[in-house]
Specification:
Blueprint: H1 25-36, E1 48-53, E2 58-63, H2 64-67, H3 71-76, E3 88-91, H4 96-108, E4 115-118, E5 123-126, E6 144-147, E7 152-155, H5 156-167, H6 170-180, H7 188-200, H8 209-219, H9 221-225, H10 228-236, H11 240-259
Parallel strand pairs: 1-3
Antiparallel strand pairs: 1-2, 4-5, 6-7
Amino acid sequence: MFKRSFPSKDRAGKAVKPAKKIYREHTKIRIQQNLDSPPIGSTLTGPIVTLIVGRDQRLFAAHEDILSLSPFFATALKGQFYEGASKRVELLDEEPEIFSSVLEFLYKRDYYPRLLHNKRRNSWELEDARDDLNLGGRGSVESTIYHTGVGGVLLKDTAIYCTADRFGLDELKRLALRKQGLQSGIQVDVILRSARFAYDNTPDSDSRLRAHYLALIIRSRKTFKRSGTMQMEMEIGGSKLFFDLFVAMCNHVDDIVEMS
């Protein structure tokens, strides 16, 4: 499921206190702009679908043609989640802020913060990212959200990846994983909570997001070794994460021995 050795360029970074994210007004404005200005070259003529999202039943609207780019919605709009002429879909288990990013991707092929190419460095970076530690285009921006289903803070891109997996959006999964790799300065408890969330919300066949967390923990093993949170999480157990981590670290040690 994962490679036997991992690159060493990434790190957990300096810990910063994550702030609880709220559903921002300008996100809703961007979605409405998407509806008013469809993608260039688009010939959207289909009906508008109302989507009821999350425990607070927030309302979204999107073109049926756009939603149908997702295999999940292509089926849902014809199946039990679809209420005939009313064109309503209920997604009460989804997080509104995460869903807004998914919808933004369906319209614009990206979501905030966008992935930008830095011509001077010839590298990719996140829109509005702060690179205080001079990490070569990596920094912290819009990195976490408060997930009501978990009752804690998660890495936003992990939540988007898992939602994209449910909706059958492989391109969005690749984008979310790439963006997460550019984040830095995330606290250990957030990483571990997000890793558990990833394991709980991806199939065992997932070979990308899970492997990303295993590699991250191994690369930052000194930080995690000193972490009381890591010790507590391992003592609680109950996750395949820690067995996979054990196997990955054994493989990592074997590679070092073979090279020596």
